[in-house]
Structure formats: structure tokens, C-alpha cells
Amino acid sequence: MTTGKNAPQMKSQIMVGMIRCFIAEQEIVMFLSGNYNWPDKWM
What we know:
Blueprint: H1 2-33, H2 38-42
């Protein structure tokens, strides 16, 4: 079946999406709190 083949790819896409959402949240929190220096922490 094709579902078994696509399962790992789907899982990794979900993980990437969650990580991107988390980084975006951190970015917004930093921006709102006034110390907008988040690229130093992520890069």
C-alpha cells in the first residue's frame, strides 16, 4: 500500500511545520517584548 510509503514523509512535514510555528511564535514574542534580537539565537 502507498500509505506505508508516505507515512514517514508526512510525519517529517508535520515536524517541520511545528518547528516553523514554534520559531514564528518566538519571533513574535521577542518582537512584542521589545528585544528583537532573535536571529542571534537561531543562527
